[in-house]
Design brief:
Blueprint: E1 3-9, H1 18-26, E2 35-39, H2 42-50, E3 55-61
Antiparallel strand pairs: 1-2, 1-3
């Protein structure tokens, strides 16, 4: 089953290390409370882990992959 992650920016990266802001942008997030869907793979998981204190993450199962 292919899964996706629903990632929402809950806190601003302002005041944190500049690499945290770059990671948030790399995930495709630009504004607070913006939500994006990304494929669930080790690269995205690593990025989410780095800035987990700024995000809300939810796993979505793809019904077409069943």
């Amino acid at each position: 089953m292919a899964a996706k992650l629903k990632i929402t920016l809950k806190r601003s990266p302002i005041g944190y290390h500049h690499s945290h802001g770059a990671t948030v942008r790399g995930l495709g997030l630009k504004k607070l409370h913006q939500t994006v869907e990304q494929d669930d793979n080790p690269v995205i998981r690593g990025m989410v882990h780095k800035v987990q204190h700024l995000l809300a993450v939810e796993q979505i199962l793809d019904p077409a992959a069943e």
